[in-house]
Amino acid sequence: MKIGTFDLKQDGVFIIAELSANHGHDIAIAKETIRAAKRAGADAVKLQTYTPDTITIACQKPDFQIKGTVWDGRTLYELYQDAYLPWEWHQALFETAHEEGLICFSSPFDRTAVDFLEKLAVPAYKIASFEITDVPLIAYIASKQKPVIISTGIASEVDIALAVATCREQKNNQIILLKTSSQYPADISDANLSMIPDLSQRFEVLAGLSDHTQGELAPVIATALGAKVIEKHIILNREISGPDAGFSLDENEFRQMVKAVRQTEKALGSVDYSLSAKALQSRHFARSLYVVKDIPKGQIITEEFVRSIRPGFGLHPKYLKEIIGKKVNRNLEKGTRFRLEFLA
């Protein structure tokens, strides 16, 4: 599966810098954040495409009051009014990303956003955690026959199965499920990263992590568990503030996360029992059979004369039982690599 030019099977972990609400209502900040994502080593930058009116309604009733989050005391409409990215910025931000060599795509929150993003030729779509139950929206997104990345933070197994089935009903099997903790910020003890390989196996898709914990530990563990995608919020400077600032990484922190993920990939390597040049060099320190005491011709070999010692240039130690009790056919000096041809 490819997202833009990035091959998720061959190019390693796909690292997404999530811009979200970290734009400070200033397009210059949004552009510079994209540049910062590039400097930090991200492969892609992701936007969110909605307006307050496409995601909720202006209403003061209790149902629309936020409770139990860092955004308590606000209505949904007020939150999204503060957080949304103006649609008229999208073209310029996509151009900035392309200039930087970053893949750029977005999370649409209704059909009008999908139609808008199609005009920008997005290479993929992200379905936010809270939209995983919006089956009509998922179907419409999947019908565009592009990779669909789905966060699973609030989803039951039934919800995930329905979302995956909805994509496949549209003949779209380009599906990536992201383990997500939909708390902001999320506690590391709630990460449940063991879900990543299970999501991949259970639903026969690629899997990854959309991370709201603080720091780089969760992305590193996710990589070790086989995550193909890591998504993390980035902010140019926390002084910008905004609803996502508390669980976003600044440029330096994001760079450290990317470095840690890439080092983890190198450490994981691949299943390969052949020996590298370095490993072959190290085998010089292995054990092998050596003459440890001068042996006269015709002498019966005992462990007084031949032992398994370092270095590893002599005969394999597995032959020791075979040669003990046999005679040598020549004089052998101490320190000689033992060979089977020395047997009488």
Summed up:
With about 350 residues, this protein is α/β, with parallel strands linked by helices. Helices cover about 35% and strands about 15% of the residues.
Write the layout of secondary structure elements.
Elements: E1 2-3, E2 6-7, E3 14-18, H1 27-40, E4 44-49, H2 52-55, H3 76-83, H4 90-100, E5 103-108, H5 111-119, E6 125-127, H6 135-142, E7 148-151, H7 157-169, E8 175-180, H8 195-203, E9 206-211, H9 217-224, E10 229-233, H10 251-268, H11 277-282, E11 288-291, E12 306-309, H12 320-323
Parallel strand pairs: 3-4, 3-10, 4-5, 6-7, 7-8, 8-9, 9-10
Antiparallel strand pairs: 1-2, 11-12
Helix pairs in contact: 1-4, 1-10, 6-7, 9-10
What features would you describe in this structure?
The protein is built from 12 helices and 12 strands. It is an alpha/beta fold and 344 residues long. The strands form 3 sheets. Strands 5-4-3-10-9-8-7-6 form an 8-stranded parallel sheet. The protein has a two-stranded antiparallel sheet with strand order 1-2. α1 packs parallel to α4, α1 runs parallel beside α10 and α6 packs parallel to α7. The protein is elongated. The mean pLDDT is 95.
By CATH, the superfamily of the largest domain comes out as Aldolase class I
Look at the helices and sheets and give the structural class.
alpha/beta
Largest sheet: 8 strands, parallel
- What is the residue-averaged pLDDT? 95
Overall shape: it is elongated
Fraction of residues in helices?
A: 25-40%
Q: Report the CATH architecture of the largest domain.
A: Alpha-Beta Barrel
End-to-end distance, in Å?
63 Å
Tell me the number of helical segments per DSSP (H or I, 4 or more residues long): 12
What topology, given as strand order, has the largest sheet?
5-4-3-10-9-8-7-6
How many separate domains make up the residues?
2
* Rg measurement, Å: 30 Å
Low-confidence stretches: none
CATH class of the largest domain: Alpha Beta
